[in-house]
Amino acid sequence: MATTTSKLEGIHLPRTAARSSPAVAALVAGARAIVPVLFALLPFGLAFGATAAGSGFSPVEALGMSVIVAAGAAQLAAVQLISAGASVAIVVLTVLVINLRFMLYSASLAPHFGSLPLGWKGLLSYHLTDQAYAATITRFEEGETRGPDRRWYFLGTGLAIWTTWQAATMTGVFLGAWISEGWSLDFVLPLVFIALAVPAVKDRTTGAAALTAGVAAVFAAALPLNLGLIGAALVGVLGGLAMEALTGRKKK
Amino acid sequence: MSTQTLWLTILGAGVVTFALRLSFIALLGRVEVPPFLERALRFVPAAVLTAVVVPLLLFENGAPGISLGNERLLAGLVAVLICWRTRSVPLTLVGGMATLWMLQAVAFGA
After folding, report:
1. pTM of the predicted model over 0.90
2. What's the rounded mean pLDDT across residues A115-133?
3. B12-42 pLDDT tens trace
4. Residues B41 and B95 occupy one common structural domain
């Protein structure tokens, strides 16, 4: 009997191990690689939770937003707009504009996830954030994480970010009154955007896009309904295209 | 905003955000991006992110505050410098917050 059992185990175990172990390893590796970034995410989540609570959001509403939207910068902007009395359409439109960059990430990751079943595509897309993208794309493009492991690696990264984000939101909501005002934690919002914007300026053309958008934002800020952001962003894209056309002509 | 409207807003924001994330991952192989759009999309991150940052740093209570007294502008510029040199998100956040706190302490003491 004993030999039969061990034989069965001998047949059974390696097979499950072979199937699950690289997946688990990739999941853990992804989560582990993102740990340093999580420390930057904490104050950001705290700031969101505290701002939401300060703007009259209930804990469920604040957490609901963190689960449903799961995009920090857009969430903070949305809360500030909502408390300023903006309409549904303006808030959603602003979120759309702020999160347009996810489309770029999506395009960039598509070759790596393109062959997955739709369920996986949906799951990984939900976890697509600035941090997850930044932490995985270089690895994927350099082939450090191989095909079937990529989904698990990305999911590990995403789950670590997700858990941190929800926990930080909740903590921020409950510490809200205690954190707020004096610490100027809302300043984390521009800081996070700076940390995202600076690496986005890679060359003269993207620099021109940033510069024109920044200048336009100053003049467009007076526009009602937060249209200034959309207008300035469009001006910036045109600025980038113009610089591209100019430098392209110079090369010839 | 009523509770119902608030949830509608959150849901709308969530749907829009998820659609953007899923867009190309779901469409790959079925739709090709027009080259012009691809070129324009390349400028979106730099343009949008800067357009978000500048007003946050510049405007105090709705009025432009381009002066040495604008602590947020100064701390923001320091953060830009830190980020540019180090490319580190944690250092940018810590450096920016620390600068703001120091400037506020100085302003409070003065």
Report:
1. no
2. 92
3. 999 999 999 999 899 875 666 677 877 887 7
4. yes
CA distance B23 to B25: 6
Do B46 and B90 fall into the same domain? yes
Q: What are the structure tokens assigned to A251, written together?
A: 């090369």
Closest CA to A74 of B103, B9, B22: B9
Is B40 in the same domain as B19?
A: no
Going by pLDDT thresholds of 50, 70 and 90, the confidence category of residue A226 is: low
Model ipTM value: 0.81
| Contact list, A168 vs chain B (CB under 8 Å) | none
Amino acid found at B37: L
Does residue B28 share a domain with residue B39? no
Using an 8 Å CB-CB cutoff, list chain A residues near B100.
184, 187
pLDDT-wise least confident of A149-158, A209-218, B44-53, B83-92 = B44-53
Q: Dihedrals φ, ψ of A44, to 5°?
A: -65, -45
The residue type at A174: F
The answer to whether residues B12 and B49 belong to one domain is no
Q: Are residues B50 and B82 in the same domain?
A: yes
Full domain range(s) for residue B63: 35-109
Please tell me the total count of domains within chain B.
Answer: 2
Tokens of A238: 């045109």
Residues B5 and B47 in one domain: no
Alpha-carbon distance A78 to nearest alpha carbon in chain B (angstroms) = 9
Q: Which residue of B has its CA nearest to A43?
A: B93
Which DSSP helix (H) or strand (E) runs through A6? helix A2-33
Position B76 scores a pLDDT of 95
Residue type, A60: V
Look at residue A12 in the predicted model and tell me its pLDDT. 45
If asked whether residues B77 and B103 sit together in one domain, one would say yes
pLDDT of residue B32: 65
Which of B:28-87 have CB within 8 Å of A? 28-29, 33, 38-59, 64, 72, 75-76, 79-80, 83-84, 87
- The reply to whether B105 touches chain A by the CB within 8 Å rule is no
